[in-house]
Amino acid sequence: MLTYEECLDMSDLTQDEVEAIAEHEHTDPIIAMAMGNYLVTHDGESKVKKIILDDIAKAQRKGDTAHEQVLRRVLNHFIQTHPEHSPMA
After folding, report:
1. Is 54 domain-assigned?
2. pTM (whole model) above 0.90
3. Domain residues for 19?
4. 38 lies in a domain?
5. What angle do CA 57, 17, 14 make, to 5 degrees?
6. Torsions phi, psi for 34 (to 5 deg)
7. CA 46, 42, 70, 51 torsion-angle sign
8. Alpha-helix runs per DSSP H in 1-89
């Protein structure tokens, strides 16, 4: 059986990216990891970017500037590591 960390290592995502997807989709991180990995391996990078942007907007509405800053770093890292498509931010 694979551990969570082994699955994360095999995905093309970071822990923070997985957490952002899990937050947006209201799901467990392992499910979010599978979803995110599928998206980045099937030309869905723009969908992942939109998910992170939605999370940023939610943090802004809540006035959670600390979480917003974390999510902005997550978005910037995702854009740098998945440059296949033009950034949405």
Report:
1. yes
2. no
3. 4-81
4. yes
5. 160
6. -60, -45
7. positive
8. 4-10, 15-25, 29-41, 45-62, 65-81
